[in-house]
Amino acid sequence: MNFNIEEAVAILSRTPQTLASLLSGLPEGWLGCNEGEGTWDADEVVGHLIEGEKTNWIPRLAFILREGESKPFPAFDRYAHLSAGSRTTERKLEEFAELRARSLERLRALVDNEEWLEKTGAHPAFGKVKARELVSAWVVHDLTHLSQIVRTMALRYKTDVGPWVQYLGILNR
């Protein structure tokens, strides 16, 4: 097992800054890239991450620690961000950074020792899950969406790179 709470926090704490560095001030052409119908662009991914901070990771962790396996924790609406009010990407990045900072404070308050991470809860679809698995999924979720954003941005220039496409693995998935 590779999980370590401090290593998890090291990634989780960097995601807002990474997104801000990558996306702040970019023209809409970059922010609006997606992989086709039904996929998300960078701006929508940031909205999704905001919803996760509000209703997924910490609320579910608190639920596991409070309720155990007595009842399933609420389902997460992965598409709620698509009906959220319109805000600029800059404002979303700021909001995400604020929410993530609060989430990490709450994580440290909830998990004051590693034993808490072995507590189990009931996922609405998966059944029995550990708090450690939830926090691990949170880290990988961040990395997945960072990868998604970079991949969709690279695809914007797929036809523009000409014959170099054969050497650019990100364009050949």
TrEMBL record:
Residue intervals of the DinB-like domain: 12-149
Pfam families: DinB_2 (PF12867)
Protein name: DinB family protein
Signal peptide region: none
